[in-house]
Amino acid sequence: MNISDRVVLNVRVLIVSVLLLGILSAYYVPALETKVSVISAVVTSATLLYVLSENLRASAVRKLDYWNKKVLTPLLALSNQLIQFESPGRSVALSQYRTLLKRWGKVGFVKLYPKGFLSTLEKVWEHAVYYDQVYMRIRSEGQKFVGSSYHSVSLFFALGYGEGGNASAEIIVKHKEFIESLKNTEPKLLDDFLTAIQSVLADLAFLKLEIEKFFIENELEPVRETALTKPVHPFDLF
Fold it and tell me: Domain locations in the chain?
């Protein structure tokens, strides 16, 4: 069941209840005139409730489109980021997106995001914060060892991730020597870094899967022009 169906579910149940109650009432009322009055009142009530449900559905669709533009599409873009490129704002963005969804991402009691999504974002954020902390230590040591030629793309290529970019073979070798030196001088730091990389990669893959599944269920698609939109402020939502 998609989001718009969940929003109108209770109203639709109420419509069915009103119709059933009206039919039963009309059945047990002896006078024809009274039967007509009961049926007329029931039909009117059911019609008004149906109109209300359609308005709720339309509202849910509009808000869902809005959250897709402001949060879900940017999160999908974030999940597609390559690990070898530095992303200092990733953890901050994850935290802000989660806060926005938690506070404002719902219509009534229906949440406008995948089930368990806030927990997913919290876990991804925690791992991203830990990754940033470990990477900053790696970067500091790498700049000391490699010098001004240090680059995250070259480091990750030396670790077996991605391509070397425009770095020369000499620079790549230097980064490999740095990694070898860590095995002797800071083995725990290197192990922590490799573990953090795997955690972030797994988290981003899962995040991407959850968003794409949600898009299919609710007939949504990424909004191209806002794929890299920064988190909005709560007061910009309305």
Answer: 69-236
